[in-house]
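so my prof wants the structure for this chain in the tokens format not the other one, which i didnt know existed until like an hour ago. anyway here's the sequence
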Amino acid sequence: MKTMNLFMYGTLRVGHWNHPMLSEGVISSYMNVTTEGKLYYAKYRDMQAGFPCARFDHDGIIVGDLLVVDAEHEGVQDTHRMEIGAGYVPRDIVINLEDGTPMPAVGWQWKREELGKHIVTGDWERERFVDY
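here's what i got, hopefully its the right format
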């Protein structure tokens, strides 16, 4: 089995509505990991969507979950197709576990130039209902 580390910061985090799509391919998970970058609400065609998008090339901290997955599992492959179709591209990043241990991972970065409101804490789970 080929494994892959995935950094999830939005609807694919443990407990959120898209997580069941890939949950059977998850081998282990680590909650509340961080990486460099900024989170925004996705902006598409003049609307603010209710889901987050990351820019790993912006200064800041993003909070999410590290999922160690079976890279060949059908649900993991379906997730990749969904993210690409929604306007994200995979990026190699480094995440930090809660104890500070760095680990390589793949994170999904928003490829469009338009960005919505900045998620100030970098944690969509905490702020998804906050009105800025």
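also thought this was worth mentioning. Helices lie at 74-85, 124-127.
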